[in-house]
Design a protein that fits this description.
By secondary structure, the chain is α/β, with parallel strands linked by helices. 35% of the residues lie in helices and 24% in strands. The protein binds zinc ion (ZN). The site of zinc ion has 6 residues, from loops.
Length: 251
């Protein structure tokens, strides 16, 4: 147990950057904005970054929350975050991407899916649109099955199963992702409607059902290769993705 040495000066800096978002019997603590210059295809684009933590304890005494951080072992769990661009609160239209974490695609640049491409391309679209936000959802790996199970699913896929069948063999439903926290954060940052970047009409429907005010959808296709052709086709035939546009079931 570490000694708590938070100076009153440091605390007063932090408390102004923390917002409590109540969610039923839990709380989301949102910290930000923090300037984040991002290398986007060789150009530096400055986003406003926010990160959030979902906690059982609901308190506006942020000192209590800060005191717990050093022993909370947060590195063992992933936290989600959001990159915001432009006048997000006030602009009439904003582009939103709900991006599910993809360790292999986003970090390694795996060609088995098109997540890395979608991540970069979404940021580019948001920048070109002048306003928007990319939510990076940390508990969505492999459409919610986790990285280890995704590795097992890949083994099955290397042996003839498609991506949906592989997940089912491992006992998972096709899609178990939840957007409630992300939508709560979105509503804190912006109450006007948004245009969703996705190829998946079911995702749009899920987000609308969860209370997101969506005014439209922008498709995001590209980066088809011999390695992900079958995967993308499965998304179209089994997961309701629209064909003429096309990509990763992670979408
Ligand atoms: Zn992926």
């Amino acid at each position: 147990m570490g000694q708590i040495n938070l100076e009153s000066k440091a605390f007063s800096i932090l408390k102004d950057k923390i917002e409590l978002i109540r969610s039923e019997d839990r709380a989301i603590y949102l910290v930000g904005p923090i300037q984040l210059p991002v290398n986007l295809y060789g150009e530096t684009v400055v986003f406003q970054w926010y990160c959030w933590l979902n906690c059982e304890e609901i308190t506006e005494d942020y000192q209590k929350i800060i005191d717990k951080l050093s022993t909370a072992n947060l590195a063992e769990f992933q936290q989600s975050s959001v990159l915001v661009y432009g006048d997000f609160k006030n602009a009439d239209d904003a582009l939103i991407r709900m991006h599910s974490i993809c360790h292999t695609g986003d970090i390694f640049g795996s060609k088995r899916c098109d997540c890395g491409f979608q991540l970069k391309e979404s940021l580019k679209k948001i920048k070109e649109h002048r306003t928007g936000a990319l939510f990076y959802l940390a508990n969505h790996e492999g459409r919610g099955i986790g990285l280890f199970s995704k590795a097992m699913a890949y083994v099955l896929q290397e042996n003839g199963y498609d991506t949906v069948e592989a997940n089912e063999q491992l006992g998972f439903v096709n899609d178990s992702r939840n957007y409630d926290d992300a939508i709560r954060v979105l509503k804190t940052l912006r109450t006007k409607p948004v245009t969703l970047i996705t190829n998946n009409p079911l995702k749009l429907e899920a987000l609308e059902n969860a209370g997101m005010h969506v005014s439209g959808r922008t498709p995001l296709w590209g980066d088809v290769s011999e390695y992900n052709e079958k995967y993308l086709q499965t998304k179209i035939t089994k997961s309701g993705h629209l064909k003429e546009e096309r990509t990763c079931l992670n979408d």
